[in-house]
């Protein structure tokens, strides 16, 4: 089966996986996904940057009911999402591998299966407990 | 000419499910508010209407009378009511006119709001992967807040219990069945740490207010309530808003912090002077956070406040005395004006539900919503 990602613009690279953010030359702010301008200082001199791939859980919740469309899934089961503190920026994403989390847990960026589309397995980014 | 603006008339419909037309609901509220102060539609100089639905508020003139008055429409999500009130206040002052009418209404279908990523400038991936969900946002925000300030999750149960207790006595609230702390905590989990009894639902309702300039207010109303401040603020860096794929590290703030501080400054009071308050409680956690962000309670002191009964009708500062959003639901356009309506009634000593004893003189209202806006008012009874 072919492998794809939900949105290629989210990634600086897929293997090894890294998220593509942007950094502001004027104030140093990092944002995700990458933007064309800086919402923190209103600067326009920004460049793409690969974000750190390790961080800590900043907040979390488990989604106990199936979200409405445009949510896509091959079959719903409760799943966790969280904010992960990567240092220069806090990124929202799936927390994979379990549904009960604690703030402060060390996690690493991974690719996680989101749904299948014909012969293609579509992946999104997520974070799992650091081995 | 005095620029002091007073609320002289106030009326609301019952909140809940409504089968009729949106405009019919709005008309009921407007006619109620006009009757409350004996003002005729033909005497209204300026009108403002807010709804998040499909109807056009300015078309209400076809029901009320084609008097030729300027009628402004506002649409600012959960802050619609606050923005409508501010627009009416500003309109009266700028136009040098005497009487304004404000209405907010909505008639939402059952179920959680369905949000589209494109409307918020976010990629389709965000919705497709199940992150474009308002309940998870609220859960993520309160989860962090409880952790940061060492507040036990049972405080969420106390907030729900209090809301439904107030609502049991309020004839226009939607959900009037009491819920115990244990029932709230043990109910189905929606998004950790929030259960089914900790969220409000979209519903139907309308609220209207009549405003008058100082020179006219005392002829129209025995106990006009002065609009001492109405302030609107947007988000700055460090705020934590719905549908945010990223947050900046460092100190957190909120438009609620800025709007409430601006309202207190404009009214010349401190948070400690507030005797009755209405705070945005889209879910139980929001009330806890907003108690802290408005400065009514120090961050981290909320749990003790609920346990001591500080926010009950005979407590230090009664909060959401009509049951708040939790018990009234959220017709988005009406919700902010419902808050003002309740405070006006409390300050006039004619609350429809539980009346704060000892005739409070200073009240606060606070709305907050996507994509990071807050509006606060300070209301004062004469002599305050
Ligand atoms: Zn910048």
Explain what you see.
The complex is a heterodimer of chains A (131) and B (384). Chain A is an all-beta fold and 131 residues long. Chain A has one domain. Chain A has strands at 2-5, 11-14, 17-24, 30-31, 46-50, 54-63, 79-85, 90-95, 106-117, 120-129. In chain A, the strands form two sheets. Chain A has a five-stranded mixed barrel. In chain A, strands 2, 3, 4 and 5 form a four-stranded antiparallel beta sheet that branches. In chain A, a hairpin with a 4-residue loop joins strand 7 and strand 8 (90-95). The two termini of chain A are 28 Å apart. Chain B has helices spanning 22-37, 61-64, 80-95, 124-128, 134-149, 154-168, 181-186, 214-220, 255-267, 284-293, 302-308, 324-328, 332-348, and strands at residues 5-12, 46-50, 71-74, 99-107, 189-191, 194-195, 204-213, 225-234, 246-247, 276-278, 362-369, 373-381. Chain B has 384 residues and is an alpha/beta fold. Chain B has a domain at 5-110 and 203-211: Thiolase/Chalcone synthase (Peroxisomal Thiolase, Chain A, domain 1, 3-Layer(aba) Sandwich), CATH 3.40.47.10. In chain B, helix 2 links the parallel strand 2 and strand 3 (71-74). Chain B has a nine-stranded mixed beta sheet, sandwiched between helices. Chain B has a two-stranded antiparallel sheet with strand order 5-6. Chain A binds chain B through residues 6-7, 9-10, 21, 29, 31-33, 39-40, 58-65, 67-73, 79, 81-83, 85, 87-94, 103, 114, 124, and chain B through 112, 114, 116-117, 123-125, 127-133, 136, 139-141, 143-144, 147, 188-193, 237, 244-249. The site of zinc ion has 8 residues of chain A, from loops. The site of zinc ion (ZN) has 8 residues of chain A, from loops.
